[in-house]
Specification:
This protein is an alpha/beta fold. The protein has helices at 19-31, 57-64, 75-87, 102-112, 155-167, 188-197, 214-225, 260-269, 281-292, and strands spanning 11-14, 35-39, 47-48, 51-54, 68-71, 92-95, 118-120, 126-129, 133-136, 145-152, 172-177, 203-209, 231-236, 273-274. The protein has 2 domains: 11-120, Rossmann fold, CATH 3.40.50.720; 141-292, Rossmann fold (3-Layer(aba) Sandwich), CATH 3.40.50. Helix content is 35%, strand content 22%. Helix 7 runs parallel beside helix 8. The relative contact order is 0.12.
Length: 293
């Protein structure tokens, strides 16, 4: 079955009545995602996109049976919206908002402890399950149902890799953008665990970049597990200068840590096949899967 998102997913959108929420929720619904309502404080009782609008997440969940929420909420109030969804025990929360203040995300992390909510993001492009639905802003058109799971820190590279995997005749099971901000919800390792346990996923592509320790942590996990499913990694930023942010808030190397070379070394030592270039990811996973078969 699909990871995170399936045919039973019933989603609400926090911030649905704004421009971004309106635009992307309409695209999600066109793709087949079952969106059942929205939340905008002060606009409860109204209708938007032919869907009911509520003042609070708890009300929306109770009235619609929603089991997922996607946030299009500005950075200053995004943490409060996340915590509201967590306190309403929403099983899945996807956050597109970029550059949520770090201290706010510390509060969100604390709210997650001991709860039942899976948080994807902030600064996530979302979740895409071809033929089932999407929660987020991922481009569609080149995706196809298949057996390759994708976990990515990069939005633009995700679209490129999805297209390559489709061209290779493999298709995708689930694609997850974990977010590029320094502090976010579910990480690369947790997503990989779920994909390795998924019967419909035959292989996994990890898309990493400079900054943080996500890739080193997942390398340690792979080294200890030695999974039978092939794993390919693309790590970008080999030529990035130190102490300079590249793109978004999480792509930053400091004091000799978080650089691409160290991440590639750790993953390769764990048995992960490294794609030599962004344009060769599809062919690399195709070869790895063919050798396994």
């Amino acid at each position: 079955m699909a990871v995170f998102l399936d045919r039973d997913t019933r989603a609400i959108c926090q911030g649905m009545t704004g421009w971004a929420g309106t635009h992307h929720v309409a695209r999600m619904m066109e793709y087949g995602t079952k969106v059942v309502g929205g939340v905008t404080p002060g606009k409860g009782g109204r209708s938007h996109l032919n869907l009911p609008v509520y003042d609070r997440v708890a009300d929306a969940r109770r009235e619609t049976g929603a089991n997922a929420s996607i946030l299009f909420v500005p950075p200053p109030t995004a943490a409060a919206a996340m915590i509201e969804a967590i306190e309403a025990e929403m099983p899945l929360v996807v956050v597109v908002t970029e550059r949520v203040p770090v201290l706010d995300m510390v509060r969100v992390r604390d709210a997650l402890k001991g709860g039942r909510t899976i948080l994807v993001g902030a600064n996530s492009q979302g979740i895409l399950v071809p033929g089932i639905g999407k929660l987020g802003v991922m481009a569609t058109g080149s995706e196809r149902p298949g057996g390759i799971g994708i976990v990515s820190r990069s939005a633009s590279l995700t679209s490129e890799v999805v297209a390559q995997i489709t061209t290779a005749g493999l298709g995708q099971s689930t694609t997850v953008g974990i977010g590029g901000d320094p502090i976010h919800g579910i990480g690369m390792r947790e997503c990989l665990e779920r994909l390795l346990d998924d019967a419909d996923t035959e292989g996994v592509v990890l898309i990493g970049e400079i900054g943080g320790t996500e890739e080193e942590e997942v390398a340690d996990y792979i080294a200890g597990l030695r999974p039978s499913k092939p794993i390919v990694a693309l790590i970008v930023g080999r030529e990035a200068p130190p102490a300079r942010r590249m793109g978004h808030a999480g792509t930053l190397t400091l004091r000799g840590t978080g650089d691409a070379a160290a991440k590639i070394k750790a993953l390769a030592a764990a048995g992960v096949r490294i794609a030599p270039s962004p344009h060769l990811v599809g062919e690399t996973i195709r070869q790895a899967l063919a050798e396994r078969r």
